[in-house]
Design a protein that fits this description.
The protein is mainly beta. The protein is built from no helices and 27 strands. The strands form 6 sheets. It has a 7-stranded antiparallel sheet, with no helix packed on it.
């Protein structure tokens, strides 16, 4: 049975997608569908699947990845027609409606398993993670358009207009802001510890980073100066994401925390009775927020209800 989150009882919508660890999920632009990517742990097949958000009905599922491995990222195009996911050292573009592959696979140079695939808003391009940074590919012909070089495993965030890319070379500290059009370095931001997750606000005014110790840092993109910060709780691996209304969502121990960036305060923490490990996804219409779990389930939060008691 599918349920909306109830602020009185802390019930959340919960749906079992696969027995494998859910690494990533993404909503269609209108929030009516969500896609998940999974890995081989603890059991089950690595695959990508599409679900109806309200009913939990599965629309389609890709064939299991052979040989067994991890599909670590999934993303929707901004028109909702396509989804992209990584697969070993390349990425596959599929029809969101049917799951059928579209065109040729996009081949990157990754060999360490640090994978990721993200559509560039407003462009028919996909950004892939490689060993030493990111590579931008054209969907039309599979051609690599541009490389963004950075050492080590790197975290990323892309602005909603597809103009800026924030990169951070974990386990090193700091964040670099570059222009996606020409690779120009726009700013260098300091952090006291390595960055595990970043997110631009939908209106482009803010960049948020979640650090290894759980601390949250907020910069204004007008001048790239630090405007807000919250101390961490020592829990690393936290993921964050802005929702369209400007609030910031972040994973905490078995729950989801909501911050008001404008007022600089924590609003509420929504408990979730599962091991939430994947990146947070928020629908463009602001109705849904979701996170994948290590037991193969997905928790979907009714985002408009996430308000201060």
């Amino acid at each position: 049975i599918i349920r909306r989150w109830d602020p009185e009882t802390s019930d959340v919508l919960r749906h079992q997608t696969n027995r494998a660890w859910v690494y990533s999920l993404a909503f269609s632009p209108d929030g009516s569908w969500f896609a998940t990517s999974s890995g081989e742990r603890p059991s089950g097949d690595p695959m990508v699947a599409m679900f109806d958000t309200r009913s939990g009905h599965r629309r389609w599922a890709s064939p299991p990845l052979e040989p067994s491995g991890i599909i670590g990222a999934v993303d929707f195009s901004d028109d909702g027609m396509l989804v992209v996911h990584d697969k070993a050292d390349n990425a596959v573009v599929r029809s969101a409606a049917t799951g059928e592959t579209q065109g040729t696979e996009l081949t990157a140079r990754s060999s360490k398993g640090w994978r990721g695939a993200t559509f560039r808003p407003g462009h028919r391009e996909v950004l892939l993670t490689v060993d030493d940074g990111k590579e931008l590919f054209s969907i039309a012909d599979g051609r690599m358009v541009r490389r963004f070089v950075m050492r080590n495993r790197n975290e990323q965030a892309m602005s909603a207009d597809g103009a800026w890319l924030a990169l951070s070379p974990r386990p090193e500290t700091g964040v670099e802001i570059v222009s996606i059009d020409d690779g120009t370095r726009l700013a260098a931001l300091d952090t006291e510890s390595s960055v595990w997750s970043m997110s631009f606000s939908f209106d482009g005014r803010w960049l948020a980073a979640r650090c290894e110790d759980g601390a949250v840092m907020i910069w204004a993109t007008a001048d790239w100066k630090l405007r807000r910060s919250w101390p961490g709780d020592g829990f690393n691996g936290n993921h964050i994401a802005f929702e369209p209304g400007g609030r910031l969502l972040g994973i905490v121990h078995n729950g989801l925390r909501v911050w008001d960036v404008e007022q600089g305060r924590e609003l509420v923490t929504l408990p979730a009775r599962a091991d939430t490990k994947s990146k947070i996804a928020v629908s463009d219409n602001g109705e849904w927020a979701g996170v994948g779990c290590t037991d193969g389930s997905v928790l979907l939060f009714d985002a408009p209800q996430a308000k201060s008691p």
